[in-house]
């Protein structure tokens, strides 16, 4: 399939990119790794008249530590996350999740900014960002604002981004030393999007869960924070009855589509299993 015609722009600064997006209007789209946008264009499901390629904007690249926060530029690729010592040390769940995205070819091009800005319920990073309490920096012609990942997703492909705004970086508070983490993803084959996936970040004290965040991928039109499921495990040692209670609380908020990955009941059932597995694996890693 061949995309429709479009004009191509390659700005060198965030200011120039924002100016282009504002001048070109609704028919302009930012282009990051292109691994979601270009397939949509080839299928003619997206027909932007103007592509503003962000690859020339050096300020959108890189990973840096600012106190107790890791700040990742939007154009940082999944491959660069995997290669980063800082990420390996501070945010190992990001490594675990990035490795479950597609294949090396996609990870060499796909960016964290494109993954979280796209609003595709099948993308893996958004739920993880919710579990980690991350926020996104959005810049537009009228200035910059920070939006929590948990407030960003409003519907499938519908986010808090205003027309002409760019997501320029992702800020992630570093979880405490000794935290446990796991991203469990069920997929039909290597390289596939999730049939169901769950991210867990927790801490343990005296053999009991002290804090816990659980988030879900591809089990609704948006990623979900499973708050009741997380509450159900606080103060417990994750005995089998508690795990089942947490899975049931998570299933209660799921509303997946019936599609080639399975009927609704199946996807909810395996979603609950992903929650139980992630909780157990995260607890096993906590110290
Ligand atoms: P692009 O495709 O360039 O952009 C995506 C959308 O976001 C576009 O609408 C674009 O305008 C907008 N956008 C991009 N950057 C910004 C920004 N900084 N500010 C505002 N808007 C922006 N992803 C997963 O999470 N899990 C998977 O299992 C998975 N499997 C895949 C398998 C295949 C075969 C392919 C081709 C892709 C797969 N993906 C998967 C998607 C991949 O991770 C994409 O790279 C990612 O979703 C989008 O990132 P991108 O950098 O390619 O963005």
From TrEMBL:
<keyword id="KW-0560">Oxidoreductase</keyword>
<dbReference type="InterPro" id="IPR002346">
    <property type="entry name" value="Mopterin_DH_FAD-bd"/>
</dbReference>
<protein>
    <submittedName>
        <fullName>Carbon monoxide dehydrogenase</fullName>
    </submittedName>
</protein>
<dbReference type="InterPro" id="IPR016167">
    <property type="entry name" value="FAD-bd_PCMH_sub1"/>
</dbReference>
<dbReference type="GO" id="GO:0071949">
    <property type="term" value="F:FAD binding"/>
</dbReference>
<dbReference type="InterPro" id="IPR051312">
    <property type="entry name" value="Diverse_Substr_Oxidored"/>
</dbReference>
<dbReference type="InterPro" id="IPR005107">
    <property type="entry name" value="CO_DH_flav_C"/>
</dbReference>
<dbReference type="Pfam" id="PF03450">
    <property type="entry name" value="CO_deh_flav_C"/>
</dbReference>
<dbReference type="InterPro" id="IPR016166">
    <property type="entry name" value="FAD-bd_PCMH"/>
</dbReference>
<keyword id="KW-0285">Flavoprotein</keyword>
<dbReference type="InterPro" id="IPR036683">
    <property type="entry name" value="CO_DH_flav_C_dom_sf"/>
</dbReference>
<dbReference type="Pfam" id="PF00941">
    <property type="entry name" value="FAD_binding_5"/>
</dbReference>
<dbReference type="InterPro" id="IPR016169">
    <property type="entry name" value="FAD-bd_PCMH_sub2"/>
</dbReference>
<dbReference type="GO" id="GO:0016491">
    <property type="term" value="F:oxidoreductase activity"/>
</dbReference>
<dbReference type="InterPro" id="IPR036318">
    <property type="entry name" value="FAD-bd_PCMH-like_sf"/>
</dbReference>
<feature type="domain" description="FAD-binding PCMH-type">
    <location>
        <begin position="1"/>
        <end position="177"/>
    </location>
</feature>
<keyword id="KW-0274">FAD</keyword>
């Amino acid at each position: 399939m061949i995309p429709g015609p479009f004009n191509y722009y390659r700005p060198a600064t965030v200011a120039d990119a924002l100016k282009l997006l504002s001048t070109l209007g609704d028919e302009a789209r930012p282009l990051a790794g292109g691994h979601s946008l270009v397939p949509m264009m080839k299928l003619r499901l997206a027909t932007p008249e103007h592509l503003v390629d962000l690859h020339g904007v050096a300020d959108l690249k890189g990973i840096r530590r600012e106190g107790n926060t890791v700040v990742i530029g939007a154009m940082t690729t999944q491959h660069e996350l995997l290669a980063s010592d800082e990420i390996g040390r501070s945010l190992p769940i990001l490594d675990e999740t990035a490795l479950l995205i597609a294949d090396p070819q996609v990870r060499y091009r796909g960016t964290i900014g494109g993954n979280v800005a796209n609003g595709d319920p099948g993308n893996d990073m958004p739920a993880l960002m919710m579990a980690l309490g991350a926020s996104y920096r959005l810049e537009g012609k009228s200035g910059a604002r920070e939006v929590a990942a948990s407030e960003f997703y409003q519907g499938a492909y519908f986010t808090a981004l205003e027309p002409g705004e760019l997501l320029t970086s992702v800020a992630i508070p570093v979880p405490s030393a000794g935290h446990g983490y796991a991203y469990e993803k069920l997929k039909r084959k290597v390289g596939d999007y999730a049939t169901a996936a769950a991210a867990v970040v927790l801490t343990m004290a005296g053999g009991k869960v002290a804090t816990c965040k659980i988030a879900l991928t591809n089990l609704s039109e948006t990623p979900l924070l499973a708050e009741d499921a997380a509450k159900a495990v606080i103060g417990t040692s994750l005995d089998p009855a508690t795990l089942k209670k947490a899975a049931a609380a998570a299933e209660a908020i799921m509303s997946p589509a019936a599609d080639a990955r399975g009927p609704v009941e199946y996807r909810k059932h395996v979603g609950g299993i992903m929650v139980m597995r992630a909780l157990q694996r995260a607890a096993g890693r906590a110290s």
